[in-house]
Amino acid sequence: MDPALTPEQLVADTLYQRAVLSVYGPWLTSRAVSLAERRRAVTRVHHARLALAAREPNTPSRTDGLCPGKDTPP
């Protein structure tokens, strides 16, 4: 657990990271999303997956193939 966050903040941030995955996850493969938006989605999804994997050991991080420096996932 991050010592800088209170238990309430940790719950709120965990819910936020899950929402990021729900909203931006589908953008990674959508043809309707512009390249610039897809880049932002890759970065946001990558961060959310890492944050959740650090907090929830049973959650797969699924960061393979996601590189915020690339335009799109492979």
Q: What characteristics describe this protein?
A:
single chain; 74 residues; mainly alpha; 53% helix; 0% strand
How does this model look, in words?
The protein has helices spanning 7-24, 35-55. With 74 residues, it is an all-alpha fold.
What's the topology here?
Elements: H1 7-24, H2 35-55
Please summarize what this structure is:
With 74 residues, the protein is an all-alpha fold. The protein is built from two helices and no strands. The model has no long low-confidence stretch (mean pLDDT 82).
Number of helices, where a helix is a run of at least 4 consecutive DSSP H or I residues: 2
According to DSSP, the number of beta strands is 0
How far is the N terminus from the C terminus?
32 Å
Structural class: mainly alpha
Shape: elongated
Radius of gyration from the CA trace? 13 Å
